[in-house]
Amino acid sequence: MNAKQYIPRTGDALFVVDVQNDFLPGGRLAVPDGDAVVPVLNNYIEVFSKSGLSVFASRDWHPKDHCSFREQGGLWPPHCIAASEGAGFARDLHLPPTAQVISKATSKEMDNYSAFEVDDLAGQLRDMKINRLFIGGLATDYCVLNTVRDALAYGFTVVLLGDAIRSVNVHPDDGLKAEEQMIRLGATRITLQQVTE
Ligand code: VGL
Ligand code: ZN
């Protein structure tokens, strides 16, 4: 085994999923312990930025009557309403000014748990010669799971940032099951130490 195989290099990008105020404690769809991902992601961001590698950040960006909201028959309380405070990236998240932001689930009729459902993300990544994605953020059992699944299905190598994800856990072990599923599908789970050593 090559000990340095997770040191970020050309062809890699960091992908931060939905680290938005509404998913943090106090937010409208708070993910338990969701704020714990922020300082860890800042470390990953620093490593990628210093190496001149791309950083992507997806965000849930819903209209106020989005189909995923309970009033519309969906599962969730209203959250991440476009341009609201709650839809903002976590204040303490140090996204670089060059971060490429992907807004998803922007129309009333459709939900997108995966950023690959918008903006031909796979095509953009291929054009940029990116073939390996380091993925972390919120929530493990929804948007991280679906983004990882699609990334793998499009043929990208996926490195799951195990110390920078947290789950909603509608059922108590949803997060664990999601992690197992991502690994079964081909993702490798690492922690920060492996990108710095
Ligand atoms: C998410 C539930 C509803 C997520 C988004 O980002 O994981 N979860 N909308
Ligand atoms: Zn949503």
What's the structural blueprint in terms of helices and strands?
Elements: E1 12-17, H1 37-50, E2 54-60, E3 100-104, H2 121-127, E4 132-138, H3 140-153, E5 157-166, H4 174-184, E6 188-190, H5 193-196
Parallel strand pairs: 1-2, 1-4, 2-3, 4-5, 5-6
In which order are the strands of the major sheet placed?
Answer: 3-2-1-4-5-6
The assigned CATH architecture is 3-Layer(aba) Sandwich
CATH topology term: Rossmann fold
> Gap between N and C termini, in Å?
14 Å
So how many helices? 5
User: Quick one: overall form?
Assistant: globular
Percent helix, as a range, is: 25-40%
From the helix content, strand content and strand pairing, which structural class follows?
alpha/beta
Strand content: 15-25%
List cofactors, ions and other ligands: pyrazine-2-carboxylic acid, zinc ion
CATH class: Alpha Beta
At the fourth CATH level, what is the homologous superfamily?
A: Isochorismatase-like
Spell the H/E element sequence.
Answer: EHEEHEHEHEH
Biggest pleated-sheet summary: 6 strands, parallel
* Stretches with pLDDT under 50, minimum 5 residues: none
Overall number of strands: 6
* Whole-number mean pLDDT: 97
- Count of the domains: 1
Radius of gyration: 16 Å
